[in-house]
Design a protein that fits this description.
globular; about 260 residues; mainly alpha; TTC36; Tetratricopeptide repeat protein 36
Length: about 260
C-alpha cells in the first residue's frame, strides 16, 4: 500500500470524522491533588460518603451473585426487592449529600438494572431482560425520568468549566460513566423506536425526539464518555452517529480521489 503523508490539518479532519466531538486542542486534564469530589471537600465527610456508598455497592454485588447462582422461581423477585432497598439507601445518602454525583450515577445504574435501557419506550421487553419485565406504566415512566435527571445532575455537577480546567481522576471516572450510561439508554431507544411507541414525560425534550435525534445524542454522549476515559465508548461514538457516518463516507471518497485508491482512512 502506498504510504500517504497527511498534513496536520488533514489528520485533524480525519480524527474529527472518527470522533465527531473531537477537538485537537482539547483534552481532559486530571490532577490528583484536587478534592476527589468538588462538592464534598471536607475529607471526613468524603470518607463517610464513600464508606456508605461502598456498602451499598457491596450489597448490589451480593444481589447479583445470588441471582446468577439461584435456581429459584422467585429469584427475580428477590433481586428486585434487594435492588429497591439499595435505592432506599442511595435516596438517604443523596438526601444528605445532594451534590455527591457518584451516588446519583450509581442510583441511575440501579434503575437501568431494574427497568432496562428501553425504559423510554412503552414496551421494555427484549434482551437483555430487565429485572422488572412488565412494570407498571406510571412506575416505569417515573423511573425513566428519575434516571435521566440523575445522570444530567451528575454531569452538571462534575463537568469542568473548560477542557483546560483540571478535575480529579475520580470526577473524570464518574463523568465517563454518567455519559456512557445515558448513551446506552439513548442508543437502545433509537434501535427500538421504529416499532415501539415513545413513553417519556412530556416536560422532557426527549418526548419530541426522533430516531436520528436519539442516535446523535447517543453518539455525543459516547464521545464524551470516551473523552473522560472510556475508550470503548469513544470507539462506538462515530459508529452510531448518522451524520458522522455520512460525512466520513464523503470525505474518504474525496481523499481517495486526491491520494489514489490505495488511501485507507
Amino acid at each position: 500500500m502506498t504510504h500517504v503523508n497527511l498534513s496536520t490539518r488533514d489528520a485533524n479532519v480525519l480524527e474529527k470524522i472518527k470522533d465527531p466531538e473531537s477537538n485537537p486542542a482539547a483534552g481532559v486534564l486530571t490532577d490528583d491533588s484536587l478534592p476527589r469530589d468538588p462538592h464534598v471537600i471536607d475529607l471526613s465527610d468524603y470518607d463517610k460518603v464513600v464508606t456508605r456508598e461502598r456498602a451499598v455497592i457491596q450489597k448490589i454485588q451480593a444481589i447479583e451473585a445470588q441471582f446468577s447462582e439461584s435456581q429459584s422461581q422467585d429469584a427475580s423477585d428477590t433481586a428486585i426487592q434487594g435492588y429497591k432497598q439499595c435505592l432506599v439507601d442511595f435516596d438517604a445518602l443523596i438526601s444528605e449529600f445532594p451534590n455527591y454525583a457518584s451516588a446519583r450515577n450509581n442510583r441511575a445504574q440501579i434503575m437501568r438494572r431494574l427497568y432496562g435501557d428501553a425504559m423510554l419506550l412503552e414496551i421494555t421487553t427484549g434482551m437483555p431482560l430487565p429485572l422488572v419485565e412488565q412494570p407498571d406504566a406510571a412506575e416505569k415512566k417515573a423511573a425513566a425520568g428519575r434516571t435521566l435527571a440523575d445522570l444530567e445532575k451528575s454531569i452538571s455537577l462534575l463537568s469542568p468549566a473548560t477542557f483546560s480546567t483540571p478535575i480529579s481522576p475520580q470526577a473524570a471516572r464518574t463523568l465517563s460513566m454518567a455519559y456512557t450510561q445515558r448513551a446506552a439508554i439513548y442508543l437502545r431507544t433509537s434501535k427500538l423506536l421504529s416499532d415501539r411507541p415513545l413513553d417519556v414525560n412530556g416536560d422532557r425534550a426527549e418526548a419530541q425526539w426522533t430516531r436520528v435525534d436519539f442516535e446523535q445524542a447517543a453518539s455525543h454522549d459516547l464521545a464524551y464518555g470516551g473523552r473522560f476515559g472510556n475508550q470503548i465508548a469513544k470507539g462506538l461514538a462515530v459508529s452510531v452517529n448518522p451524520t458522522a457516518k455520512l460525512c466520513g463516507q464523503i470525505v474518504r471518497e474525496a481523499m481517495k480521489k486526491e491520494y489514489g485508491p490505495s488511501f485507507d482512512a
